[in-house]
Structures are given as C-alpha cells and as structure tokens.
Amino acid sequence: MNWIRNFLKPKIKSLFRKKSSMKGAPELWSTCECKQLIYREDLFKNLSVCPNCGSHHKIDARSRFSIFFDHSQFEILPTPLSRLDDPLNFQAKKKYSDQLKDARRKTNQSDSILVAYGKLNGMEVTCAAMSFDFIGGSLSQNSGEAFIAGISRAIEFKTPFVVFTASGGARMQENLMSLVQMSRTVLAVNELKKANLPYFVVMTNPTAGGVTASFAGLGDIAIAEPGATVAFAGARVIKDTVKEELPPNFQLSSWILEHGGLDMVVERKYLRGTISTLLQILLKKKESQVISETETDDVESQINPKTSKSQSA
Ligand SMILES: [Zn+2]
Known about the structure:
Shape: globular
Strand order of the largest sheet: 3-4-5-6-7-8-9
Largest sheet: 7 strands, mixed
Order of helices and strands: HEEHHEHEEHEHEHEHHEHH
Helix content: 40-55%
CATH superfamily of the largest domain: 2-enoyl-CoA Hydratase, Chain A, domain 1
CATH topology of the largest domain: 2-enoyl-CoA Hydratase, Chain A, domain 1
Structural class: alpha/beta
CATH architecture of the largest domain: Alpha-Beta Complex
Number of helices: 11
CATH class of the largest domain: Alpha Beta
Bound molecules: zinc ion
Distance between the termini: 96 Å
C-alpha cells in the first residue's frame, strides 16, 4: 500500500511533530524504552521512573536534590569556575566554547556537577549530583573544582557526603586538564575519609570512564540504581578486544552486584530511606569508635602509665 507509506504516514508524523515543537508549550507526553507513552506529569510524580516497566529515567542535578532532601529544601553551594574554560581552544565538529555555551543555556548549570546541602531525615548532608545533559555529564576542570568544594564543605561542617554520578567519563575536549581531575577528586575523597566522615556513591545510568575509575569507585557504600550501566570501557570495545560474546546484562548494575562490584542496587523511591538508615548506623558507629578509642587509651595508661604520661606532656 504505497499511498499509506508515501502519503498518510508522513502526514501523521508531521502532525505530531508540529504539536511537539509548539514554542512555549510544555511537552505533555514522554516516551520510554518499553515504547509506552507516559503522561509527563505521571512520570514526574513517580520520580521519573516508568510506571509501566520500572525504567529509571535520567534526571538532572536539581531534580535529584529535590527528591533527595527533606521537603525538597536545599541550598546550592557556589563553586569556583576556572579562569580558562577552554584551555586548548578545542574544536572538533563544533567549537568546545560553543558546546559549553549551549550546555549552560540548556541546563542552567555552569558545569556538569552541582553541589548542595540540606537535611536528610533531619541529618545535615552535603551532596553532589551530575547532570548527564551537560555534555554527557563529563568530568571537567570546573566539575572537579565543584566536587572538591563539596568535599571541603563536608569536612568543614562535619557532614556526610553523598554523590550521584551520571557521566560518560572525562571531558576529552580539556585533555589532561580533565584527566588530572581524577587524581584531584580521589585526593579529596581521601581527606573526607581521614576526617572519618561517611562517603556514599550512588551510580545512576550511565556511570563510565574516568568517573568510575576515580571518585565513583571509592564509596564506603557503593549503591546503584536498577538498570544503570556502570563501566569503564564500553561493552562494544571490550567485545572487540576479547573477541568473545558478553552476557546480555553485562555492565548493568544487577550484573555488577552479582560480581561483587556494588554493595546494593536500590530503587529510586527507596534511596532516601536506605541512605538515611545507613547514615544513622555509620554515625552511631563513629560515636562508638570514639568511645572505644578513649577506652583503649585508658587501658594503655593502666598497662604503661609512663608512656601515657609522656604522651600527654
Ligand atoms: Zn517503560
């Protein structure tokens, strides 16, 4: 039926295209990988998880904070920006400086990581979240600075630090300036751990490359959302290198959990409760550690009072 394919089908498509591209009109419907058309408000109410198949859709940093903190109340931490946004004056198909401008306009963020603080079940928490919409959530100089500023804030105010990752990896348009953020963020996490403060990582879809290989891989508790791809190199690259068939769920959070790379896979609706409960346990443990250290000192002073006195002098 040529007339259906050549005339009717394009006509129907153009009708839908006109509706969805009406300027100023919010798009009412969203689609999912299960091919179900979802009323956008229903998707939003369901924390951007498909009510039909349970697929966890990507959400930006502000939406993440909004569903994570008590009563959706949080403060965004101002974070430093590099003096040179485009240190290499990089250009591929598009100028990197233009890519940055577009991403900033589209996301209302200065770079891929935002840091916020607020309360989780009454406990003060510092939190960072990545927006995949900002050049694939890639790790840049500015996002490295934001992450470090967040950790510094957590240490200063003695709060736990939670990061929600969503990234394709390092931002290659910045070359070494991006790669060095891997070691800088790792050093920052070490400082947090030295301060005895809990560090939680929640890996959302996708978390890959230099982000997986740096701060995302260091959580005291490593959590991922269901269906999230967590990887260093992509499955296609691995398959071409090892020349073997890979399992169908390769690099999905459920597969990583089975192979010991994650502590738990938690649905988005349970993240607040799970993290809050674990934080309560860890913070209590910290208190008991302090007590046990004091007890140890007492025991030491009883066994060897001379050593104890010389230490305190
Ligand atoms: Zn779905």
